[in-house]
Here is the input.
Amino acid sequence: MVKRPCMPRVCSLPPGEGQSAPREGMFDPPPRGASIVVLVTTATELVDHYFELAPGADTAPYFAQFADHAIVEDEGQTHRGVEAIKAWRAAVPGVTYTVLDVRTTGDEHVARAEIAGEFPGSPVVLTFHFTFTGEGKIETLAIR
Here is the structure.
């Protein structure tokens, strides 16, 4: 569970100000089983999205945010490719994340987060070093 709120960015104008009235069914929920596409545009939003998905029981969206050739480094181990990342993630205990801050230096985006759960030394503060592809997929993630 991410304790830092992540607000969607929605812009709307009332009808008559450059926009027509909503079409019938426009705001209905998607049919059961339909895919939902979330457009994320900034690095901070991508990092927030990672922490929103990380504790979730539905792992498909979590793994979908990684590039096929992604690399994760955690606890001195390197995991290359989505299949290796899935194996790594399966061994991670259930935790909650509280994002403390996110900063950008060049192409790297660094988040400090408090992680709490059923593991020795909990809670701990770790840094998550992200790089992203041009398409917004996680290319590298180093947890220190």
